[in-house]
Amino acid sequence: MELDIKWIGSQNYGLPRGTKGRRGNKVIAIVDHIMEGTLVGTDAWFNSIESEASAHFGIGKSGEIHQYVDLNNVAWHTGKVSNPSWALLIKGLNPNYYTIGIEHEGYSGEDLTENQFQATLELHRILIKKFNLEVNKETIIGHFRIDSVNKYKCPGVGFPWKRLFNELQQSEDEIIFSDIPPQHWAAESVRKIKEVGIMVGYSDGTFRGEENITRYELASALDRLMN
Ligand SMILES: [Zn+2]
């Protein structure tokens, strides 16, 4: 899936404002938020100097993705650290330095729309790959893990953690050959026969599923099946 990301921009980035980069800190987690409002309202909010708030991305109910802050820069999305439950929190360092923030249109308690879920899933996949993150409960977190006092409803009970983790973990497992996308109709079958060693790919990591199989190759696959 190609992601269509619309650049909106915001002056609310960097510490102090306008400073580029992350002072050498690596991104170690994605923080998910709920807007408590609309995408249009968030565009305006992040473009108000007084709000002193931003995030890298905002995802609308239609699946539209807006970007406010460059990935190389620090967005202002984590707010105060208050009674946190996040294991990777670095003491004394503002979490904005080492996180990416994604806002979701809507209100705490609401479900994401299907388009919104698909967009955030794909965006998570891209960010996980870009920043080389493992997929677990410490690398993909809700805002409430940083501030459980004031932000305990962010992103709220409607946020589809279970489905998101299932899909993300699945996509990690399923990338078995570089030329088979996880959503390919035969991906699951190919994964199984590779797992049990009946068919192997080429040394360059491809499967080349459209190529013909020779009688020799079939014979050796069947031989492996019988052993
Ligand atoms: Zn939040």
Summarize the structure.
The protein has 227 residues and is of the alpha/beta class. The chain is 26% helix and 11% strand.
Could you explain how this protein is built, in words?
- This protein has five helices and six strands, in the order E-E-H-E-E-E-H-E-H-H-H.
- The protein is α/β, with parallel strands linked by helices and 227 residues long.
- The protein has two domains: 5-174, Lysozyme-like, CATH 3.40.80; 187-226, no CATH class.
- It has a six-stranded mixed β-sheet with strand order 1-4-3-5-2-6, sandwiched between helices.
- The mean pLDDT is 92.
- Bound molecules: zinc ion (ZN).
- Residues 33, 143, 151, 154 line the site of zinc ion.
* Annotated CATH topology of the largest domain: Lysozyme-like
Q: What is Rg?
A: 21 Å
Helix content: 25-40%
Note the overall shape: elongated
Number of domains in the coordinates?
2
